[in-house]
Amino acid sequence: MNIQKITTIVALVLGVLGLIFQVLILSKGDDAIEMNSLAGDFSAVTPMITLAIIILAVVVLITVVSSLAALASNPAKLKKALISIAAFVAVVLISYLFSDGVETPRKDGDVLSAFGSRLVGTGLRTFYILAVIAIGSMLFSGVKRFFK
User: Fold this and answer.
1) Which residues of 91-121 are buried (b: 16+ CB within 10 A; e: fewer)?
2) pLDDT at 120
3) Same domain, 83 and 148
4) Which residues contact 115 (CB under 8 A, 6 or more apart)?
């Protein structure tokens, strides 16, 4: 049996399970589900949420495996991917080096540690650097195309 048939069968089984769970949820009604959830009983929607998590995990796994297989089969693409990963790591490292950490009180009374504050700063700086690179590359591409 090839991978296409297996994927089709798994997709059909998951789809039928989703349809069954949807019918069960609809048959209970919104009011009953809301009243049960106020009492802490989420049994009506838990199977649907679990199915969604399983589907997400399967899709992510298939995507990662197929991407790695495609990269492994083409050395030129693998080299470009490794260069891109190294560039991303360099951006994150630069962002981390320029970030500082200060203990910060939060609204709920807890305190965000200095390291946690530094990680937040790193994430923000990484976002800003990547946004500037993306905007710059779009502008460069547009100007380059304009002059051709």
Assistant:
1) bbeebeeebebeeeeeeeeeeeeeeebbeeb
2) 93
3) yes
4) 101
Range of the domain at 62: 1-73
Average pLDDT over residues 11-36: 85
Q: Which of 38, 73, 108 is the last residue of a domain?
A: 73
Render pLDDT for 111-133 as a digit per residue (tens, 0 to 9): 989 999 999 999 999 999 999 99
Asked if residues 91 and 77 have their Cβ atoms less than 8 Å apart, the reply is no
Question: H or E element: which one contains 101?
Answer: none
Same domain, yes or no: 113 and 123: yes
**Which among 95, 97, 100 is positioned nearest to 116, based on CA atoms?**
100
* 111 DSSP assignment: E
Q: Compute the half-sphere exposure of residue 84: CA atoms within 13 Å on the CB side of its CA.
A: 8
